[in-house]
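CORE FACILITY INTAKE
Project code: CF-77B
Contact: R.S. (postdoc)
Sample description: multi-component assembly, three entities in total
Requested service: structural model of the whole complex
Turnaround: standard
Below are the sequence entries exactly as provided by the requester. Do not edit them.
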Amino acid sequence: MREIIGCDVAIVGGGIVGGSAALFLRQMGFTVTLLERDWCGAKASGVNFGGVRRQGRPLEQLPLSQRAHAIWGRLPALLGTDAEYIRSGHLKLARSETDLQALIDYQERSAGFGLDLEIIAGDAFRRRFPALGDRAVGGSLCPEDGHANPRLVSPAFARAAAALGAVVREQTPVDRVERDDDRFTLLCGGGLEVNARFLLNTAGAWSQRIATAFGEPVPLESLHPNMAVTEPLPRFLAVNIGVEGGGVYGRQAPRGNMVVGGGRGFALDADRARPQRDAVLTLMRDAAELFPQIAKAHVIRCWTGVEGYTPDRNPIVGPSRTTPNLFHAFGFSGAGFQIGLAVGEALAELVRDGHSSAPLDAFRIDRFPPTP
Amino acid sequence: MTAPFQSSVIQPGAIQPVIVGAGPAGVRAAERLVAAGLRPLMIDEAARGGGQIYRQPPDGGFTRSKAALYGFEAAKADALHRTLDGLRDRVDHRPRTLVWNCEESALDLLCDGRTETVPFTHLILATGATDRVLPFPGWTLPGVFTLGGSQVALKFQGCTVGKRVAFLGTGPLLYLVAYQYLKAGVEVAGVFDTTPLPVQARALSGMLRDPVTLAKGLWYVGWLRAHGVPIHNGARPVRVEGDGRVSALVWRDAGQAGGREMRVDCDAVAYGLGLRSETQLADLAGCRFRFDAMDRAWLPERDAAGRSSVAGVYVAGDGGGVAGADAAELAGERAALALLEDAGLPFDAGRATALDRRLSRVAAFRRALSAAFPFPADWADSIADDTMICRCEGVAAGTLRAVAVNSQAREINRAKALTRLGMGRCQGRMCAAAATELLARALGTGPDGVGRLRAQPPIKPLPVSATPRFEAAAS
Amino acid sequence: MALLQRVAEQGRRVVRFTLDGRPAEALEGDTILTAMLTNGDQLRRSEFADSPRAGFCLMGACQDCWVRTEEGERLRACGTFIAEGLRLVSASEWAAEAASGESAS
């Protein structure tokens, strides 16, 4: 059966970026068709750690990240749910004086962006965060950062867009994309054809296909962050925890389960990944060392997802350099959940105005040397 | 720093079979592999082999005879235990050991709080089954146990789950456990069989293919009646009442128009609706699944010999579809023969053919069983929105229906992501059947139309402190 | 009080343990589930429903019988045997948290 949909904007990929772009475009009055091969928010957007964090991002991401922060603050109004979003604070731990200095340096470099970072060290640190004991010499607190439940947030954007009139098609892979006479034609599974003036490529780790189809391949690599969750435990930790220099990260969900991450899973195929046993065991050991409160608890589930990483770990956000009215947003390199909402908004601005009020130059698609 | 991972390495060309489960299927598989000169590793969560049906009492002064423990099945239980004992020096039996993951031709084990990874060239999954249940109000109250669990209490611990016990549900265990309880000297408040009598009567003709099973079943029923136990066919559970523990079962007689509610005082309810297969490891091993209409569940695909869709991985016994202990013994041996054949080793082709012939009759037996003890397919229509479906995470029926009817979830893994159903400690073992029925009904499709809850490691809770042995080796 | 009733195998050696701080007796070869439920009528409380639980399947599938010791160890009651001197707790650790009024850091 053949079905043809004409619209202003076709969006390929129903994750948090595509979903929020669809919502903002509908608010601006554009007609939108959102195409998702799986279920909206079922891939990296929905299975990530759930950190909603500005702190620690490269400075060039902070303008977007600040805008995202404002959008997160409007979550209930946008979605009709808070999706367990809590501004608990994000505490980045320093486990050595060198690491503490790195946090102080970041505080200085990011001073103009409004993160309100607070460096806490020594006795003050131990008094303020008794749950962390003496396993860190100090830390940098971003009080308004926090965490949320990605399983709830990410699908909710596509749903909110649909409620505003966006056409959302799940289980609908895009088989081919063509462009002629200023229009994009997307041939999809199930005999669906979508004609649109604008095309947004927000397909996460699978965005390479459309980029390549329009002559701008990028060095995108799929990686699989490894995560685990414990049984519910009495609350001991409100803040979302990261560690300077990387390694383990953790947050305690409102219901008491401790969610921890670190290491990498492995790919089963291009679409699916699994936690890897050594990574799981290493994560358990490192997490128990950082959070002794979980040392006697059990891990009840491990998971991972498929996420696109760029060589410089900055995303690709902005206009295509080969094709008018094509915009890319992918390659968030494991840090797209918080910023994704502002990227969705920026994409909507690009469609409406041809430019975004947020600086996107660092995220140009043509910044990488040509791939052979 | 992470020490390099050191697992034992299998020599090229060597065959290292691993069997998961030391019940009827696992033991018969091990016996056949040992006869062929192999030394299988047999891993089981229990302290002593035998599986759930032929579960042996713990060490430490238990004195009841096998006749007392296993009744009509004592000879079979004894034979299996003897086989296991005879294999002691020729099988690496790893009791009290959980397999929590399967990844790339190796299993991850947990024993005494430590993890260990063991590679395999061939894997026989004989993981068995546990009770299938559908929730109803009060099913989490202390004093409500599964039928199988109630039997374990008696067989394994010399205890009953109450002083006056109501037996509820369907399946061969219903009358058997009621009989065992009455013999043990406690009061049986009644047998509340969810199968209407005409259905059962019709189905019994199918059971004539297996006259022994039929005769045993009728014998239990007759014995219970003769001892004054009320037996109610076509009963529907309404709720379990009690303040902190069971005090009564409220049920409805489907045979009566409108179904008057009735109450029976009891301090425990033993409940089950047949069995459900343990399939998590087959899933992690990468086996393809198919929907089985008889079990109303997704099961790993297997050929008549037990070969899964993954080369070198075999599924035997109730873990691949519920057919009972006798069939499991045959299937375990048959899978071992398939393994030998696939490994290019000599195997008894005549024996394989004989087993195939006997196993082909199992399908008819399965059909007869599911006809005589039908799944209450109308359950999803009757269950109230506030009934807790997922006992781990506390997810109610209404929450699940809501994500289905507003089109957020057209598939069970999406429902899991949105509601937390199946995300708790049991990973959906207790709620997947119910969630499948509810979702299917809410979406206007069949139980085969809502997908399959995917397994995730660890398949049972894994202590955070279970640091791997390679750490010790490195220090 | 007791949920489980002993009907056989009562000639085993007595094992002493504590349940919620009170001395209790079980028999050698008892699971923790048997030991606790012959001395009381719950194993734990559900974290989310705050309702009592006493296990369900008794064969390691339902995971509803995880109990803890005073030292904070977590044991699956149906598959772990009682041992002399175990100090088992059936009360909710969550209630203690709420009562103390302490907020998380």
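Facility notes:
- The mean pLDDT of chain A is 96.
- Residues 321 and 355 of chain A are 14 Å apart (CA to CA).
Invoice: internal transfer
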